[in-house]
Design a protein that fits this description.
Elements: E1 3-7, H1 11-23, E2 27-31, H2 34-44, E3 48-52, H3 60-70, E4 76-80, H4 85-93, E5 98-101, H5 106-117
Helix pairs in contact: 2-3
């Protein structure tokens, strides 16, 4: 099964998404900020990334650009709070394939990951 990198500074969001994904048979790697995400991406080359936008150390938009520079074929979906449409648009222009609005329902998370890994 595919490996998914879940990046969010909120531990409960990482745990929630990881639980949804592992129960569906995915392998999950977690990162707590953009810098951590870059290290984990380099080390594990995941099949897809769920990337929070607002984080300390390095925000999701910067991390997206760094991941795409490292691997132009990277499959990334942004995870956003309501009211961040402008940032989501910029993320899509920077290579994000999809986005999820927090708190995302399990079926939406799985549909997004399935689409990324197709």
């Amino acid at each position: 099964m595919a490996t998914i990198l879940v990046v969010d500074d909120a531990a409960f969001m990482r745990m929630r998404m990881s639980k949804i994904l592992t129960e569906a048979g995915y392998d999950v790697i977690q990162a707590e900020n953009g810098l951590d995400a870059l290290d984990k991406y380099r080390a594990h080359k995941p099949d897809a990334v769920l990337l929070d936008i607002t984080m300390p150390e390095m925000d999701g938009l910067t991390a997206l650009k760094e991941i795409k520079a490292m691997d132009p074929g990277a499959k990334v979906a942004m995870v956003t709070a309501l009211g961040q449409q402008q940032i989501v648009l910029e993320a899509v222009k920077s290579g994000a394939k999809d986005f999820l609005v927090k708190p995302a329902e399990g079926d939406r998370v799985l549909a997004t990951v399935s689409k990324l890994c197709a």
